[in-house]
Amino acid sequence: MKNIPQLKLGIIAVSRDCFPMELSASRRAAVVKAFTEKTGDIYECPTTVENELHMLKALKEVKEAGCNALVVYLGNFGPETAETLIAQKFDGPVMFAAAAEEKGDNLLDGRGDAYCGMLNASYNLKLRNIKAYIPEYPVGTASEVADMIAEFVPIAKSIIGIKNLKIISFGPRPQDFLACNAPIKQLYNLGVEIEENSELDLFAAFNAHSSDPRIPDVIKSMKEELGAGDKMPGILPKLAQYELTLLDWAEAHKGSREYVVFANKCWPSFQTQFGFVPCYVNSRLAAMGMPVSCEVDIYGALSEYIGTCMSEDAVTLLDINNTVPADMYEEEIKGKYNYTLKDTFMGFHCGNTAASKLSSCSMKNQKIMARALEPNQEPNITRGTLEGDIIPGEITFFRLQSTADAKLTAYVAQGEVLPVATRSFGSIGIFAISEMGRFYRHVLIEKNYPHHGAVAFGNFGKPLYELFKYLGVEELGFNQPKGMLYKTENPFA
Question: What are the structural domains of the chain?
Answer without folding.
Answer: 9-162 (3.40.50.10940), 164-478 (no CATH)
